[in-house]
Amino acid sequence: MARFPTWVGIALAGALSLSLAGCSSTGGKRAEDARKAAAAQGRSAVNTPRWTFAMITHSGDGDTFWDIVQSGAKQAAIKDNINFLYSHDDEAQQQAQLVDAAVDKKVDAIIVTLAKPDAMKAAVARAEKAGIPVITVNSGSAESKAFGALTHVGQDETVAGEAVGEELTKRGKKKALCVLHEQGNVGHEQRCAGVAKTFDGKVDNLYVNGTNMPDVQSAIGAKLQADKSIDAVVTLGAPYADTAVKAKTDAGSKAEIDTFDLNAKVAGELKDGTLGFAVDQQPYLQGYEAIDLLWLYKYNGDVLGGGRPVLTGPQIVTKDQAAALQEYAERGTR
């Protein structure tokens, strides 16, 4: 058994080493990952107390994006000897109640998303009043510091949208359709606004009911049939990209389909040219780092970011990078 200081050193290096690992797809890197996994055998790498951390998100049922976030959080929780609790609700008031429930359980730390920040403010304040450290993740970077969170882990949604606008311009597109699948989600609004800011062409927003894929497909198809000048469709989540592809086919459109977020299906469709590009915000990293940073805070009083968000994206992924990332996407970590 290694001495505790050695393991602490490994844990403190976790944030940097994981970020660097995402850039490599070499056989040597995969072999090293396998060796470490075998050595860990599901055991914690530290002997700190078994703290309980709760993550409460705005995810709806069946949203595979959050499976990837959870995968990262669970892996870090094993390493850091954390009892990890996960709950979610896509209705903001219910999500706030889940935060209140975590406070009542007297958990040791809370990770929360702020897709609809106004509804979450009081619940976050209650957690902090109870002395429970909070990290925000994925959405709410603009509100995180004001709400008193230690830091925010995720991508800046406006910056991500701007990256998409620049990529569309680079590809010579003239008119884009930005598909928002969750009304009231400030991050989605920021993405589309960012696209419009840097895109040399025109952007139309289309609001759809993201919980009903047939309706999403129908709405996108109708828009493409009505406006043949649309030459790019941007979806804000990986599950909606394939639906947009089907809508494009139904409408007889030649528009390029691009998307935020990455999963195995998106990686495959990037590889075969069905999709143009994707914007990866590295959800595995969001879950992993949120747990790791709270462990560092509880153990050593460390706070990363200096009041600024810890960015996990955006990374533009095209056909050229898709093959290298597909292996990771298929195992559920990208």
Describe this structure in words.
The chain has 334 residues and is of the alpha/beta class. The protein is 51% helix and 16% strand. The protein is built from 14 helices and twelve strands. The protein has a six-stranded parallel beta sheet with strand order 2-1-3-4-5-11, with helices on both faces. A six-stranded mixed beta sheet has the order 7-6-8-9-10-12, with helices on both faces. Helix 2 packs antiparallel against helix 13, helix 5 runs parallel beside helix 6 and helix 12 packs antiparallel against helix 14. The protein is globular. The N terminus is likely disordered.
Give me the secondary-structure topology.
Layout: H1 4-12, H2 14-21, H3 27-40, E1 52-57, H4 64-79, E2 83-88, H5 92-104, E3 109-112, H6 117-129, E4 134-137, H7 141-144, E5 152-154, H8 157-170, E6 175-180, H9 186-198, E7 202-207, H10 213-226, E8 232-235, H11 238-251, E9 256-260, H12 264-271, E10 278-280, H13 283-300, E11 310-311, E12 315-317, H14 319-330
Parallel strand pairs: 1-2, 1-3, 3-4, 4-5, 5-11, 6-7, 6-8, 8-9, 9-10
Antiparallel strand pairs: 10-12
Helix pairs in contact: 2-13, 4-13, 5-6, 8-9, 10-11, 12-14
**What Rg is obtained from the alpha carbons, in whole angstroms?**
20 Å
- Which structural class should the secondary elements be placed in? alpha/beta
H-E string: HHHEHEHEHEHEHEHEHEHEHEHEEH
Helix content: 40-55%
Helix count, DSSP H or I runs of 4 or more residues: 14
| Overall residue-averaged pLDDT value | 89
Largest sheet: 6 strands, parallel
- Calculate the terminal CA-CA distance, rounded to whole Å: 32 Å
**Low-confidence blocks of residues:** 1-27, 33-40
Number of strands: 12
Strand order of the largest sheet: 2-1-3-4-5-11
Overall form: globular
**How big a fraction of the residues is strand?**
15-25%
